[in-house]
Amino acid sequence: MDTLNQLMHGFAVAITPLNLMWALVGCFLGTAIGVLPGIGPALTVAMLLPLTAKVEPTAALIMFAGIYYGAMYGGSTTSILMNTPGESSTMVTAMEGNLMAKNGRAGPALATAAIGSFVAGTIATVLLSMFAPVAADVALQFGPGEYFMIMLLAFTTVSAVLGSSLLRGMTSLFLGLGIGLIGMDSLSGQTRYSMDVQELYDGIDIVVVAVGLFAVGEALFNAFFPQPEGSFNKLSSVHMNKSDWKRSVPAWIRGTVIGFPFGLIPAGGAEIPTFLSYAAEKK
Predict the structure, then answer these.
(1) Residue 191: which H helix or E strand, with range?
(2) DSSP secondary structure letters along 211-242
(3) In which element (H, E) is residue 112 found?
């Protein structure tokens, strides 16, 4: 009950007109910078940190939250409209959302991404506030064995869902594992496959791989196979219809159920639950 009272007190502070204004400013700035390919939410917050130098601490935190969520939504915008993920967690959004955009349904795709992020983020925040002590105790029980099983589940799921051929999926999986091995081992300090290139000591960032796979691939495809004018369907609607709502609401709930436990795990990341949710919806 004490947690609920504190949550309501924080909510009362957050909905004051001044704090709502800072949240709006943060969302606007985060979205404006988040649409740039390769700039994720964390880098966006770091870039805009000086803007809060003379802002009250509570308002600054609210503004940071708006910047973070705005940057995440900005990444989905470039994924849907340009097939260029702003971060690794929006790769699935690029695969499906860009197809909807090419079919004239960019509006519903953007709306689904925005509303789904809001619903999942709100539910997860409330649950975390209510069950934070229990969730922290459970998360601390995860050891190397549990992490290995989670990664194994994620690898097998991703390789099975990305394409009709299991061979191609497994080939892509092991290729990604090979790229992930490049860099310095965090435990032993030994370098792996860096070829004495200092720039590779830190490894290859997943954002670089995602942008290279989607953005560079899309640019090369359009360069060698130019599309004639009028080859894409015109924008048919900017709103979600009843059928879209009927299909999306259960998917938002399932995605929240899958993503919330991974958010509790230290260094869990958003990539694994994103692909697991995608696999669940494909089934």
Answers:
(1) strand 191-192
(2) HIIIIIHHHHHHHHSPPPTT-SPPP--SS--H
(3) helix 106-140
- CA separation for the pair 27, 65 (Å, rounded): 8
142 DSSP assignment? -
Residue (of 252, 270, 261, 266) closest to 68 by Cα position: 270
CA separation, residue 131 to residues 62, 73, 135, 267 (Å): 22, 26, 6, 19
230-255 burial, b at 16+ Cβ within 10 Å, e below that, comes to eeeeeeeeeebeeebeeebeeebeeb
Q: Cα dihedral sign for 239, 243, 244, 245? A: positive
pLDDT single digits (tens) 230-276 = 545 556 666 788 888 888 888 888 888 888 877 777 666 677 778 77
Q: Token digits for 283?
A: 């089934």
- One-letter amino acid at 161 equals V
Residues 6+ apart with CB under 8 A from 119: 252, 256
pLDDT in tens, 10-42: 888 888 889 899 989 888 888 888 777 667 777
The first and second tokens of residue 1, run together, are: 């009950």
Q: Read off the DSSP letter of residue 192.
A: E
Cα dihedral 176, 181, 187, 190, rounded to 10, equals -170
Query: Where do the domains of the chain lie?
Result: 1-141+237-282
Integer Cα distance of 199 and 107 in angstroms: 40
Task: State the amino acid at position 14 in one-letter form.
Answer: A
Residue pointed to by tokens 């990604």 = 176
Which tokens sit at 72?
Answer: 């995440």
